[in-house]
Every structure is written in structure tokens, then in C-alpha cells.
Amino acid sequence: MLRRISGEGLRVTLLQPRRAAPLGIAVWLVYVVWLIAQLAIGQATAPVAQIVGDVAFIVFGLFALTCAAAAALSNGGRARAAWALVGVGAAAWIVAVAGSDLRSPLGAIRGPFSTWADVGFVVFPIVTCGALLLLPVGPVGPSTVRLLMDGLVVVGSLFLIAWIVVLRGLFDAGRTDPLTFAVTLAYPILDLVAITVGVLVTIRARGAARMSVALLTVGIVLMSISNDVLYHVVAASGRSRGDLLDLGWVTSLLVVGLGALAGCSQRLAGQIPVHDTLWLPYVPLSVAGVVVVADLAKPASVVVLSVSVSLVIVVMLRQFLVMGTNQRLLAVVAEQALQDPLTGLANRHLFNDRLHHAVELHRRELFGVLAVLTLDLDDFKLVNDGLGHAAGDALLVDVAARIRSAVRSGDTIARLGGDEFAILIEKGPETPDSVAQRVIDAFAEPFVVDGHLLPIRPSVGLSVAPARDRDLRADMLLKQSDLAMYAAKRTRGSGVVTFASDTGPMRRLAAEDDAPKLGLLNDLRHAIEHGDLTMVYQPKVDLRLGGRDVVGVEALVRWPHPEHGLLTPGDFLPLIRRHDLMAPMTELVFELVFADSARWHEAGRTVPVAINLFAPSFDDSGLPDRLLATLGEHGLAATELTLEITEDLVIDDVPRARQTLECLRERDIRVSVDDFGSGFSGLHYLRELPVDEVKLDRQFVMPIVEDPRAAAIVRAVIGLAHDLGVACVAEGVENAATAERLREYGCDLAQGYHFGRPVAAPLLLDALTSPDPQTTRG
């Protein structure tokens, strides 16, 4: 039944609890059928039947002992000690059965201590009660002691009721001597304590613990009933054992063993709510109080007085424990009220409190370092929408851990809400810029959540308190950090943006900060609904043909805002991503681009066009059919369209995206990886997704003439692209030297201000129909 397994040290565990339990139940059923048969033929009290009953006691006692040993060895800590006690109780019961003469009517009548071996019967309820108190179904310490006190209150109350109503009359009548009477009461009292504790623990247990504790409690109840029936009913009738009484003992041992198996297969854990059983001990206590008050008319009883005083003392001690528990709970609640429940970081309330305190110290001392850093995760909404909120929560926990590892121990880290975090940087040898840079570096590696590689980047803003500023305010420092963070989000750069009120972006953000984001969002929704966005097109040339012929264009969206002027994607794409406007935005862009392409066709020009598409759009298997239908409506060929995947976004379901891309390419629509090298996903996309070209990010292309390392990277990527059979496009080409170097490296296509600035569709058409296409340069 036991086997040795490898693990942390030498452990012994049950071979298979799901097999051991049916085996025990099967043996029990066989015994039940045999016992019923003996009853049917009137042989249940025959010597042979009683010998079989004693053997059954030993067999099921060994079953309970073995299961308890397996549970003890498969657990650790308090659970191991608890199941070890259950095993001790089962062993004591086996010894008691083997050493006592239950078949003797005289032994039954004399009471529970006919022989010293019978002490084992008393051990069982004592040790199982201790096991129930030890099982880790909730907090340790005072709660365990309080459980015992609850049991004492219930037992004492019930004893008072029973003594005044029934037992005192029997005792006074002289039906038995005091010693025998006390010994006889030992069984029900001990059983009652164990049952009370078992019920209390079962009510409080949670999860897997409840099944195990409930079975153990049921076993104790069956054992108690059997014991009481034996010593108070069977003995009174002059019979040696009850007919079905043996079944109660055997069943109780079986249930105790099943409880141990439940504790063996699943470790017990959980938190005990302190409110659900606070009232339970007071129910019998109130009844006992009424009975005692009614008994005051009779002469004082030493038993009633002693038990009543003991109950008062136990209740007082219990209340002291409850008060201590409440104080600890209040402390925990107060601490949780200042913490973010998901990440364990400080929450906004605690951060604001510490920020105000730090600002007051800074104003008094007029020196030292004080700074606030805020960061927001780019494209976090895509994670929630694509992978679910559980994955989003897991990502936030990982982000909190990385931030915690990057800052100093004395700095305060807080989660202000959603995916926004803040750090309060106070005195120290390091500058706030170095701390901020470490935070950014902590995001260098992608996060792994549910098997998905997530290249998450933060937008980071920093606000440093000026020295000798007596007018410094905490809310202003935090607001300035937020402004810097939003400036970083608009530029989508990879560094820290430090607040400087005299810079253009800061002035613009500060002017828009009070109501504007909501107003800007409403304007954006209106612009998308009414088609108020416009498209411009940047030419792409073929370096292999000398770079003079325009072979395609990239479509770029612009928003001519009536108040803020012409806005580029960096100004409003964060709103698009955050507020679930990607689908209508994509539909509008397709409509605008295809309409321009149709006009070019009418003028006799065919211009392949590339459109940036949000990466999650490729998870949509219906995308190819919709695109082909729209192209057909405008009289365009699929070969004129290239879809560009922005590398720094996340494709949720790569296998499904692969199918979508294969379907697009089968319909002659080209696929490109845009901004290759700007994120973490480029190589992964090249390996997993069928694409036709990669576009080198401008940050690698622009310095290749002066920077040998950048040149080496660009040359290697071009070679890698050709080895994979895909074309390479370079963007950000600003001068002839860069264009020539790219041509030497074998780059296929290029775009940038050297070849032409982005222009509206009519201007592009004029440039294409002019003798010199290079007139698109501006």
C-alpha cells in the first residue's frame, strides 16, 4: 500500500489514494453483507460472529492507521503532526481491542476500564481532537487555542444542562458509585469535545481541507455514538455487544481512513473567516444560563458552581483572544488599505501621503534630491483584450517585480491604477536620471505570460523638484511627471522624458492637461466617424535600379485638427489603442487609401501601396476575404497592396495569424514586418510568419555612414533577409551617402526624405506624371 518515491528527501506516500479508498469501501461492504446475513439467521451474537467482528475491528483499525501514516508522510509541518496523531489514535484503538474482552457481558457492564488496555479507547477521541486543532485549515496561534476554548464552552454548557436536568437525579438516587459514574461520563464528555471541535473546524475549513476535516469529524461522531451505545444502552440491557453496534465502530474507522486519504491527496490550506462561528458557542451557553438560573431555587450544587465558574473563566479568556484577533485584523486591514492588492506595492493614497511628507521636508531643508517618476505600459490594453484580464494581471505582477528590483530600497513604488506606476525618489547618492534609466533597462527583456512573449515597453516621465523652492507642491510635482510621461508616450521613444516647462511639447501638454484628453478623444471619435482623417504617401524606390524610379508608396495617416493643427500618428495612436478604436480606424484608412488608388488608376497610374496594420488585426481569419471584397469594389488588384505589421505590437495567436497571412499571400497581397529592430518580435515573426519583406527601422539606417556597428547590423539584416528569401526595405534614408551605402549592401528598396517627403495623393500623382519623379523631394 505504500511505496517510496523520489523528491525532496525520502518520502513515503500512498500508492494511489483513488485505489485505496475503493478497496477499503469494498471490504466494508463485504462485512456489511455478512453481518446482515448473520442477523437474518439469528447468529449475530454467536461466538464465531463476534470473533469475526473483532477481526474486522483490527483490519479497519489497520486501514485507518496505514492511511493516517501515509497522510503524515506525504505532508509536512502541522499537517504531518496532525495525521500522526490520528495514527496514534488508531493504533491505541487496535491495542484496546486486542487487549480487552468485549465479548464478556461482565466486562461491558463494568464500564470502559475493565482492563488497562481499554485506556486506548479513551486515547482515540483525545488525539483526534488534537489532530483537528493542528490541521492547517487557517491561521496558526490564537485561532487554534480559541477553537479549543469554543469546544470547552460548548461541552461545559451541555454538561450543565445534562447534569441539572438528568444526571444529578441519577447520581443522587445512588444508582452508581461516584468513581464509576465519573468514569462512565469520561467517554461522552471526551467524545463531545472532539465532535464540537470537529464541527467548528469543518465549518471554518475551505477548499480541499473541508473534505478531509469533514470525514475525520464524521468518523469521530460514529465512534462516539458507538461508544455511548455500548456503555449506556447495551450494558444496561445485559447484552455483550449490539447487533449493528460493531458496524458503527468499523464504519467510523473506515471514514477516518478515507479522511486521511483526502488529506494525503491534497494538502490542506486556506484562510479561516473569523466571523462565521463567533456566535456558535453562545447558543448552548445561553440555554445553560437559563437552566442554571432556574435551578437557583434548589440547594447550591458543588458541580454546578464549579462548572459555572470554569465556564465564566473560559468565556473571558475566549473574549480576550477574540479582541486580540480583531486588533490584528484591524492592523491587516489598515495595511491592506494602503497597498495595491494585486502587486503588493503602495497604492495611490499611500504614495500621495509619502509624497506630501517628502515635499514638506524638501521645502524645509531646501536641499537634497526629490523626484517623481511615473510610467505607463504601452499597448497594455492589447494584452487585456487579446489574452484576457488574468494574463494582464499576471503581467502587472511581473512588471511590479522588475520595477522593485530596479529601484533603491528607500524609494516608494506605487501602482496608481491600471497599468500606471509611480516612484518617489528621495535622498541618495544616485541621480534620479540613473534610477529612471535602470527602470527602463528592467524592461529590456520581454515578459513571458501564459507562454506568450510580450515585448512590453514603458513610457517614462520624470519630474525633479528644484532646489530652494519654498512654493513646491506635491500635486504639481506629480502632475509634471505625468506630463512628461504623456510626452514620452506621444513620441514612443525608448528613453526618459524629463519635465521642462519651457519646451514646446511640455507647453502644449500643459495647455491641454486640464480637460483635453477627454475632448481630444471625442474629437477623434467624431473624425473617424465622419472620415475627417487624411492620408499622405511617402515614395519607395528601387535601389537596384539606381533609386530614381518610384515603385510604391507607404500610406501614412494624418489628422487635421481644427484647434491643434495637423497631428501625426504619434499624437493620437495611443488614444486609438487605449479606447478600442483600432477596428473603425483601420476600416477608414483602407477606405481612404483605396479611394486614392482608384483615382490614380483613372489617371493611368498603378502605384503599389503599403498600409500599416495593427498586429492584432492579423488574428482575424476573415481579414483576407474582406480586403479582397473592398479591393474589388474599387477596381484594384491584390498585387497593389502590402500590409505592414508593426513589430512593437503583439500578435496574440501566432498560429492563427500565420494562417491569415498565408491566406493573404495566396491572394497576392504582400506582407511586411515594419520597424524591424525596434522591438523584440522581429526575429520571432521572421521565423513563425510568412512575410515578403522586412523594413529596417530608421534608428539603424540613419547612422550607418558614421557608425560601423550600425552598418554591421544593417548589412547582417539585409543578408539575413535575402537568405530567408524576403526583400529588405530601408526607411529613414536622409542623404545620398546613406542611399549609396545601402545599395552597396544589397538593400532592395528604400524610402526617406532623400527620395521624397510624404505628400497628399494629388501631389503624388503630379510627381509621378512629371518628367522627373524626384520632384517629390521637399
From TrEMBL:
InterPro entries: Cyclic-di-GMP_PDE-like, EAL_dom, EAL_sf, GGDEF_dom, Nucleotide_cyclase, Rev_trsase/Diguanyl_cyclase
Chain ranges of the EAL domain: 517-772
Gene Ontology MF annotations: cyclic-guanylate-specific phosphodiesterase activity
Membrane-spanning intervals of the chain: 20-41, 47-74, 81-99, 119-135, 147-167, 179-201, 213-235, 247-265, 300-321
Domain GGDEF: from-to ranges: 368-502
Listed CDD domains: EAL, GGDEF
Protein name (record): Bifunctional diguanylate cyclase/phosphodiesterase
Organism: Mycobacterium yunnanensis
